[in-house]
């Protein structure tokens, strides 16, 4: 029997390889739908499919899956805006914004974003499909997108600049196939997707000769803009204050103020007093250090003792663990309204991200059901909510500067930033800092706008912010469309 084992093993491996489901490089399924958006009855066509990524020899080396929603009955498609949507990670599918924010389908959750059963999909009455067509793109290894040629080097896809380069080529093909070159174009990205679209703004312009009207940054990353040491520490404080306010951990005089009335005081302190104190480091006198700890405690809801024990430098992970430690809870990373329970109250960081487990709980059944039953896209390939994209080359990230350069070279291009006050991963004050630093001349400030929301990283999960966020995007698109005959010039 021993001499059969290698043969059986080889057969087993061969069958396993043969049974591995594959996605086609080039395919599309077309379905027709109707919905009501802002009280208006709308019919639309959904194109669910894959489009290849080709190498220099024209060989399809990867399949990128997408969902494209196009409103029916539009006679002037040249004036109809096209929104190109990416999520982040890197390694995250476009599922989040597709079925919870701007798309015409909406997953079943409660009004604050928590999972409910039975899982499912309903119509999104706040979608921006009334004013723009939308394509949701899944980069390689996310959603159904896959590498097709195993010989292709993964560095072709997995890195800040590699990601931008191949997606720009892919978008050129998509826009050509869909005959959307004349249309006003917008990029929207969430989280790492903001890194992606900031880089794409210049890459599309410089190497695909495709010019944009707008870029929407939802919960933006650092965009390659340097911050470290005292700056990084000081910028966290307004987020701490917002979260502490939400959990009723601030002193009475601050707690009785509305959130947006309270935060400017903390922002001013962070920049004008906390940052200079941190710069002094060990040269602070004990009295000065105590005074700073008292103020940081006032704004963060944390004990002075903990702040002093950490030399005034409170990490976000410690904050998530410490704020409600005496109540036996941790707070979420991406949305600090969410609570978690750890194995033990001691420690310096939570055991898990309370918000992410809740989101995956709701989104995963919904997207799988929606793809198969509403869009008729049936495959044995797994939908990767998060796909393997590591190692990811993060070197030479100049995406904030890329976006500035694209704006400087294109007078039409405007930027909208959307941030949740309770987002501890890509916090709102760091988003403001991006805007200040990527435009040192101050000459682009009138083409940048910021909106804050009373929720977290995916602010649209809260029903009130779903409606407001979409309306803000809708207004941004309308405002950034130039008047007929208005030239792009300074």
Automatic annotation (TrEMBL):
InterPro entries the record matches: AB_hydrolase_fold, Peptidase_S10
Endpoints of the signal sequence: 1-19
Keyword Cytoplasm part of the UniProt annotation: no
Keywords attached to this entry: Carboxypeptidase, Glycoprotein, Hydrolase, Protease, Signal
Record PANTHER family: RETINOID-INDUCIBLE SERINE CARBOXYPEPTIDASE, SERINE PROTEASE FAMILY S10 SERINE CARBOXYPEPTIDASE
Name of the molecule in the record: S10 family peptidase
Organism of derivation: Parapedobacter deserti
Source species taxonomy: Bacteria, Pseudomonadati, Bacteroidota, Sphingobacteriia, Sphingobacteriales
């Amino acid at each position: 029997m021993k001499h059969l084992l290698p043969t059986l093993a080889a057969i087993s491996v061969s069958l396993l390889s043969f049974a591995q489901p594959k996605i086609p490089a080039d395919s599309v399924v077309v379905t027709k739908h109707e919905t009501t958006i802002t009280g208006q009855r709308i019919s639309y066509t959904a194109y669910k499919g894959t489009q290849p990524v080709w190498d220099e020899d024209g060989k399809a080396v990867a399949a990128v899956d997408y969902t494209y929603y196009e409103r029916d009955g539009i006679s002037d498609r040249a004036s109809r805006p096209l929104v190109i949507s990416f999520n982040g990670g890197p390694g995250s599918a476009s599922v989040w914004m597709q079925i919870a924010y701007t798309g015409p389908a909406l997953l079943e959750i409660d009004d604050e974003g928590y999972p409910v059963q039975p899982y499912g999909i309903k119509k999104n009455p706040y979608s921006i499909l009334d004013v723009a067509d939308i394509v949701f793109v899944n980069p390689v290894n996310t959603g159904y997108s896959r590498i097709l040629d195993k010989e292709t080097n993964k560095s072709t896809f997995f890195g800040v600049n590699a990601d931008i380069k191949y997606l720009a080529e892919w978008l050129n093909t998509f826009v050509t196939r869909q005959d959307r070159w004349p249309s006003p174009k917008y990029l929207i990205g969430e989280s790492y997707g903001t890194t992606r679209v900031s880089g794409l703004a210049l890459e599309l312009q410089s190497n695909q000769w495709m010019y944009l009207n707008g870029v929407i940054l939802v919960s933006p990353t650092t965009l390659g803009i340097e911050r470290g040491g005292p700056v990084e520490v000081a910028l966290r404080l307004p987020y701490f204050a917002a979260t502490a306010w939400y959990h009723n951990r601030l002193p009475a005089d601050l707690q009785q103020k509305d959130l947006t009335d309270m935060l400017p005081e903390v922002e001013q302190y962070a920049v004008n007093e906390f940052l200079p104190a941190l710069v002094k480091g060990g040269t602070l006198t004990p009295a000065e250090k105590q005074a700073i700890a008292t103020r940081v405690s006032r704004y963060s809801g944390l004990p002075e003792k903990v702040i002093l024990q950490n030399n005034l430098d409170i990490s976000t992970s410690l904050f998530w663990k410490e704020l409600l430690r005496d109540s036996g809870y941790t707070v979420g990373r991406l949305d600090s309204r969410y609570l978690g329970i750890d194995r033990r109250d001691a420690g310096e960081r939570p055991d898990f991200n309370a918000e992410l487990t809740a989101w995956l709980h709701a989104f995963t059944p919904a997207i799988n059901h929606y793809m198969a039953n509403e869009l008729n896209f049936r495959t044995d390939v797994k939908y990767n909510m998060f796909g393997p994209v590591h190692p990811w080359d993060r070197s030479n990230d100049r995406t904030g500067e890329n976006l500035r350069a694209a704006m400087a070279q294109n007078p039409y291009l405007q930027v909208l930033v959307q941030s949740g006050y309770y987002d501890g991963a890509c916090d709102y004050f760091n988003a403001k800092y991006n805007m200040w630093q990527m435009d040192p001349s101050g000459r682009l400030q009138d083409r940048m706008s910021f909106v804050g929301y009373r929720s977290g990283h995916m602010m649209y999960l809260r029903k009130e912010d779903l409606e407001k966020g979409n309306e803000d995007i809708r207004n941004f698109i309308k405002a950034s469309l130039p008047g007929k005959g208005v030239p792009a010039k300074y």
